[in-house]
Amino acid sequence: MSNTDLRHRKPDVQPRAIPNDVNPKVTVPEVVEYSKKLEKGSVLRGLIKPSQNASSNPNLIKIGTPEYVVVCGLAGVLVAGGSHLLGTPLDVIKCRIQTNATKFPNFGTALRTTLAEEGIRGLCRGWAPTLIGYGAQGFAKFGFYEVFKKQYADMLGPQFAAQHKIAIYLAASATAEAIGDIALAPFEAVKVRVQTSNTVPSSLHKALPFIYSREGFGGLFKGLPPLWMRQIPYTASKFVCFEACIETIYKDILKKQRHEVSGRDQLAVSLVSSVISGIVCAICSHPPDVVVSKLYKDPNAKLWEVTKQLGFRGLWSGLAARILMIGSIATMQLFVVDSVKTAFNLERPKQ
């Protein structure tokens, strides 16, 4: 073996005793404590920048988790049920204009006639089915929208999802709304009957069995197809317009990412986008809304007969009242839910 081959040589380590008059400066407990600090990252916290992902934010609520659905769903119950409840007087006027244009030809006449015949109580008819029905619908709509949006994007792949965002927004919102409308349908039937007919009891607990005893489940769910015709365009246009407005404002006007903008400015962006989306979705979904009101008022009415009878002009009756009511409701819903997502630290999809 060559003298230069050091592979088989033992290291020249000689044990040396520490003199009695020398005390070690670092004790074993101090070493252990220092090791614990390294594990926690307290020593290196100022030297290493945390990564910008979910692991750097342990309190982030991930999309698709039960916690995410519950938070968004409860926010949906609050804004959908609560906002429609506040809009009940406008809803009464709108439905009466749509179903009895002879007696209620316009907003002012409908309001004066209702107050003269029934007083303030007449403007509150149908508040209970409104609160419960739209609360259940709001849970499904806002709870499942982001979940479906993520699932569809994962199914189609990141490249396709990035190139076809609008299609994914449409599919996700339509799916979530279709589920919510199943829960809404029987309460919508009760609401319209209570608001437009004097023969139906005015309270929910009496009106629901009253309609069921005479028409069965068919009477409670016969408006589901036109309800889908009304609500799916409403929700799809609302979410798509909102998403498009948000992206346009950040990308083309502010030229910043969401996380680069202050919380106050984020709320301002959400508010502007909500107002625009509220007006758009009210217009897009108005003709089916007229048909739904007509169908629920008359137990014997048929979808195509009602549509033919109304004609093009009749399909747009009560539009001003609906823009005022639905535009305000949609604005409130989108703004509050987006604020809740920020407040509860919910994950946002990557743009």
Automatic annotation (TrEMBL):
<comment type="similarity">
    <text>Belongs to the mitochondrial carrier (TC 2.A.29) family.</text>
</comment>
<dbReference type="InterPro" id="IPR044677">
    <property type="entry name" value="SLC25A3/Pic2/Mir1-like"/>
</dbReference>
<dbReference type="InterPro" id="IPR023395">
    <property type="entry name" value="MCP_dom_sf"/>
</dbReference>
<keyword id="KW-0496">Mitochondrion</keyword>
<keyword id="KW-0812">Transmembrane</keyword>
<dbReference type="GO" id="GO:1990547">
    <property type="term" value="P:mitochondrial phosphate ion transmembrane transport"/>
</dbReference>
<keyword id="KW-0472">Membrane</keyword>
<keyword id="KW-0677">Repeat</keyword>
<feature type="repeat" description="Solcar">
    <location>
        <begin position="265"/>
        <end position="343"/>
    </location>
</feature>
<dbReference type="Pfam" id="PF00153">
    <property type="entry name" value="Mito_carr"/>
</dbReference>
<keyword id="KW-0999">Mitochondrion inner membrane</keyword>
<feature type="repeat" description="Solcar">
    <location>
        <begin position="67"/>
        <end position="151"/>
    </location>
</feature>
<protein>
    <submittedName>
        <fullName>Phosphate carrier protein, mitochondrial</fullName>
    </submittedName>
</protein>
<dbReference type="InterPro" id="IPR018108">
    <property type="entry name" value="MCP_transmembrane"/>
</dbReference>
<keyword id="KW-1133">Transmembrane helix</keyword>
<dbReference type="GO" id="GO:0005315">
    <property type="term" value="F:phosphate transmembrane transporter activity"/>
</dbReference>
<feature type="region of interest" description="Disordered">
    <location>
        <begin position="1"/>
        <end position="22"/>
    </location>
</feature>
<keyword id="KW-0813">Transport</keyword>
<feature type="repeat" description="Solcar">
    <location>
        <begin position="164"/>
        <end position="248"/>
    </location>
</feature>
<dbReference type="GO" id="GO:0005743">
    <property type="term" value="C:mitochondrial inner membrane"/>
</dbReference>
